[in-house]
Automatic annotation (TrEMBL):
GO function term, MF aspect, one: GTPase activity
Species per Swiss-Prot/TrEMBL record: viral metagenome
Stored PANTHER family: DRAB11-RELATED (PTHR47979)
A Pfam cross-reference name: Ras
SMART domains: RAB (SM00175), RAS (SM00173), RHO (SM00174)
Gene3D superfamilies on file: P-loop containing nucleotide triphosphate hydrolases
InterPro entries: P-loop_NTPase, Rab_GTPases_membrane_traffic, Small_GTP-bd, Small_GTPase
UniProt name for this protein: GTP-binding protein
Family statement drawn from the similarity comment of this UniProt entry: Belongs to the small GTPase superfamily. Rab family.
């Protein structure tokens, strides 16, 4: 029975990965410094779809927020393994962060063990962050990249119109559950992340940053 899915969140340093997760989980925009190593979150998602009866509509997501600084790449790459989903983030005001997406996707394809057979690709989503500023990367260009790789694309801001953050991630969670169940019909032996023995009754939980 499905009890947990793992997501890795990746992207160039400073694009706002942690801020997006903090906005989604706490509905707050914390001032944060670049992640050193890995941050880890869990989130209890209320699923309402064709597979609801299989797990009472509640699924725990393990969310791994990987540092974007180049010096941490060798350390963080192994954390991509056993992930079932990928969220790629870039800064709409930083073209370099957009050009780096291919590198992050290549890493994921090497380390991911779970593939979506519908498009022979990863189950992923692309987020263009900091929409509230003056974008230097066009929406058309980002959408083209996302479609080429079989991803949905959303533009978000953790400062204004923050409902788009929740809409985007909830949409992705729903897609992940559907894809997982479609896939497991073909491959019953797919492994899930181990259950968290320290889970509590809260919808949200945040564990301290892991400094590597």
């Amino acid at each position: 029975m499905l009890d947990r899915l793992k997501i890795s969140v990746v992207g160039f340093t400073g694009v706002g990965k942690t801020s997006i997760l903090q906005r989604f989980i706490y509905d707050s925009s914390f001032v944060s410094t670049p992640t050193l190593g890995v941050d880890y979150f869990t989130y209890d998602y209320k699923y309402n779809g064709q597979y609801t009866s299989l797990h009472n509509g509640l699924i725990k997501f393990s969310i791994w927020d990987l540092a974007g600084r180049e010096e941490f790449r060798k350390i963080t790459r192994p954390y991509l393994s056993s992930s079932q989903g990928l969220i790629l983030v870039f800064d709409l005001n930083n073209p370099e962060s957009f050009t780096k997406l291919d590198e992050w996707l290549t890493d994921a394809k090497i380390y991911f063990s779970f593939k979506n057979e519908k498009n022979n690709n990863l189950t992923g989503m692309l987020l263009g962050n900091k929409k509230d500023l003056n974008p230097l990367v066009s929406s058309d260009k980002a959408q083209e990249w996302a479609q080429k790789n079989g991803f949905k694309y959303f533009e978000v801001s953790t400062k204004t119109n923050t409902s788009t953050v929740r809409t985007a991630i909830n949409d992705f969670f729903h897609t992940m559950v559907d894809v997982y169940h479609d896939q497991i019909k073909r491959e019953p032996a797919i492994n899930l992340v181990n259950s968290d023995t320290n889970s509590n009754n809260n919808n949200f939980k945040y564990k301290d940053c892991i400094i590597l």
